Amino acid sequence: MKNVFVAGGVSIDSIIYLPEFPAPVPQTIHECRFNETIGSTGSGKALNLSRLGFDVYLHALIGDDSFGKKAIESLNKPNLHFQFDNFRGGTERHTNLMNAAGERISIFTNNIAEEPPLSYQQFHPFINAADFIVINLSGYTKKILPMVKASGKPVWTDLHDYDGKNPWHKDFVKYSDYVLMSSDNLPDYRPFMQKMIDEGKELVVVTHGKKGSTGLTKDGHWYEAEALTDFNLIDSNGAGDAYFSGFLYGFSNGYSMHKCMQMGSIAGALCVNSDQLFHPELSTSLLENLFNKHFSK
User: Fold this and answer.
1) For 74, 165, 242, 248, which has the most beta carbons within 10 A of its beta carbon?
2) Domain assignment of residue 208, given as a range
3) pTM assigned to the model
4) φ and ψ at residue 134, rounded to 5 degrees
């Protein structure tokens, strides 16, 4: 099994499903579908990757509270090793409002500190043992980026809905070698992708939800992959992390760039067909079978 180290991103989320987002007026909503579950980008990647042939070591900060215990229980899965430090401010919490189109308003109701007191030496064994290293967006993970660079290993990162300008992301942009993100806040994404390649990135992939994804490699080749839209939308939370995981599965198997993107599309489609951050039937065989069904000619 390939070993992957994932740093950052565990929360407990309250998810509220509505036909449409509420109008900005005082009101009472009497009935809605509701779910309280594990959330955030580290959880999403780890739960998907651990089903796709990877031995996953996930590190995050949680509180010594009931929500932290729920996170530990939710991440107690085969091939997933959850390493954590306790944060005195409590476990990270999000409240997500979802509409029928799968769009989200996410409210961070409890954040973790940007620079918590941690022993960063603990990460050296994870970095040294890893075949792939994924550093997620978090304040504390910024200090892990130069540690990975010093090891000579490449950094994978997910910039999510980065707008191409926010200075908070600069360390992740600087140190990353493999970049995935969405075009939600970057409609003119191609110049940014080209800039990343010009600055030495190995590849950049930008996802567009139902409109598929766009990739660019260091040799200057552009790629487009379709999204799979014939899967019922149950919950779009985690779709980007599932895409990332499907892409990394393909990459770890030496697949072409286009096939990696197609594997990402399949994993993302499976995720939205579930109310969890992963599809409960996700496996390497399911991914390969769906590839043969939808993409193989």
Assistant:
1) 242
2) 2-20+32-113+129-294
3) 0.94
4) -115, 115
